[in-house]
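=== RUN LOG ===
request id: a7f3
mode: sequence -> structure
chains: 1
length: 377
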Amino acid sequence: MENKTASKPKYERIMEDLLVQILNKNFSYETSLCTEKQLSEKYEVSRITAKRAITELEHRGILYRKRGVGSFVTRNALNNLSNDIEPKEDSQMISLLLPFDITKGGLFDTVEVVNRSLNKNGYFMSIYTTDISLKKEKANIKLLLSQKISGLVYYPMRDKINLNLLNELVLTGVPVIIIDKSTDCPYIHNVVSDNFEGGRLLTEHLLSLGHKNIGFLTTAPLEETSTVRNRFGGYLHQLQAAGMVPNRQNLIYLPYEISEEELNQNEHFPLFNTLKQLHDYGITAIIAENDTVASVIKICCAQIGLRIPEDLSICGFDNTILSQNADITTINQNFPLIGEHVSKILLESIETPSAPIQKITAPVELVIRSSTGAPHP
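=== RESULT ===
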């Protein structure tokens, strides 16, 4: 009788031996299972053959590689194993849909944590950006529907999350996690920062300094943007807790882009007049929707002769490099922690489709800098 094992390609024989070792749990997740050099010496094969065996198991989500160290068993390896050694047909790709490039803001930390966790467990990550375009956001979701992905992490521009399209993913067993924006959809995961508490903390800080006329400035429509709406809610809550009643002049909605680029290109930038009017009205502090807006406000104040913080205290939100460089009081979002939550939900949902839907709110903290101080008498 023909020896079937001997007739198999050498790389398949190596794979089978490694699979038996894994099935028998004869390994440690923290220790390298093998290296190309070890396998080539043990089985007397070329490094190319050894590499192919490892690569096949990587594609199946059984192993992942650490450069210069070796190959390790993924945390979900036992769930990925089957009785044959054909490459796994299920997709190992997780897609992220973001409104901007991840080099902006602390979101890079979130993506880095998610990517590291996915790679460790045999998954890969693809990133799509919408360039702040609702039309492109929708088109990208349609594109993802035509591809075989194992999960979607989605940062929508506004509260509208294109649910009719996401339903098609959910109905095929693909977990969807919404980040940044809050959603009450009962079958979609949600991981957000505690924006309400952030708005409350900033307001509490300004009140403690003696401010009595505090403005909240945003370029995002509150009815469409849960993040900013929740920050505004925290602001209102703390004012009311202090026995103060704001009026409509305290909510400043500016329906145009506020960026340093726009400021530099327009010497008649409308924010100049807005800040003069707010100062004349007696507002002594402003909570801006984010650090980008806060940093531009600070530049404008310098150009129109308003002193920071003597004439106007300024707060941002996010604790980005902008607020750090401009020394702006802000709220720090724990982006690495958000990444940990997202990773955990993804892996649990993929491995156990019946896992419960999770709604997680990550804590925030106040970061006080020189842009806030007591109002000038």
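=== NOTES ===
DSSP finds 15 helices and 14 strands in the chain.
Confidence is low (pLDDT under 50) at residues 1-7, 82-89.
=== END ===
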